[in-house]
Amino acid sequence: MPNSDAFAISSAWIIANVWSALIALIVLVAGWILAKFLSDHITRLLPRPLHRDQTIAPLVSQVVRYGVLLVTVIIVLGQFGVQTASILAVLGAAGLAVALALQGTLSNIAAGILLILLRPFNVGDNIDADGIVGSVVEVGLFATQMRTPEGVYMFAPNSKLSNAKIINYSRQPIRAVEISINVPRSADIGRVRDTLLQAAASDYVLNDPAPLVRVESLGDAAVTVVLRAVVKSADWSVARSALQERVKTEVDTALAQNAFAPAV
Fold it and tell me: Could you tell me if 129 and 160 are in contact, meaning their C-beta atoms sit under 8 angstroms apart?
């Protein structure tokens, strides 16, 4: 074919399809903007109990965004004469192939949905999932973003979290602090109890239930006594450190003054 004929055919094809290409470009840009807009504002359309839910809202946002982008791509391809049925058939075959190749990734998505439905933890909770320890920042489609106690960023796959034994330290509003000490076997347990309860008189400690002291074990030379005090879960770490310090100070002072000696 002469070059002039090829150029004429190319020019005719471009002229015939320039309108479709322009519409496709507009649709693509509009779809991208719409996906971002809906992703940022979709939480306002959720029911009121979920409106400010920091656990489910990010997941819904991601699903809506990817859904709008997928529809946009299908519309753009339709502008160039690609049949929708063919697109869906190709997507189905491609989806099957991708599903077989990315079983781990899909398991993360399924696990993320289960984590949202079952709610073993929420955003802001402190958890321990078989060694994955930290504060939950965001639950996504593929992984959960966390922050370790040292402030280090952690990206934990959802499949690992869903299959792990999860200990949620923040789920209950209150949590117990237990401190064990050893005193001489000859010590007056009543005086030991009074000293420990005095040490438990802290702004962190709740009075309902009240602090208690119990004998944990008896040895040949020493007795193990446990102070148990209930604090708010959010204050547990600070309260435990403060109580340990107070207990040590009070017990050391009592031992130095021989205050645990039995009454004669």
Answer: yes
E strand map for 113-173: 126-129, 132-139, 143-147, 153-157, 166-168
CB 98 within 8 A of CB 49: no
Q: What is the pTM of this model?
A: 0.60
Q: Give the CA distances from residue 66 to residues 13, 38, 39, 71, 253, in Å, rounded to whole numbers and listed in that order.
A: 32, 11, 9, 9, 65
Q: Are 44 and 51 in contact (CB under 8 A)?
A: yes
171-191 tens-digit pLDDT: 999 999 999 999 988 888 999
Domain that holds residue 195: 174-256
**86, 88, 94, 100 alpha-carbon torsion, rounded to 10°:** -140
CATH code assigned at 147:
2.30.30.60
Give the end of a domain, one of 48, 69, 101.
Answer: 101
Q: In sequence order, which residues have a C-beta less than 8 Å from that of residue 36 and are 6 or more positions away?
A: 65
pLDDT (tens digit per residue) in 91-117 = 666 666 555 555 566 778 888 888 888
Nearest to residue 145, comparing CAs of 58, 260, 41?
Answer: 58
| Nearest by Cα to 59 from 35, 48, 43, 36 | 43
One domain for residues 94 and 7: yes
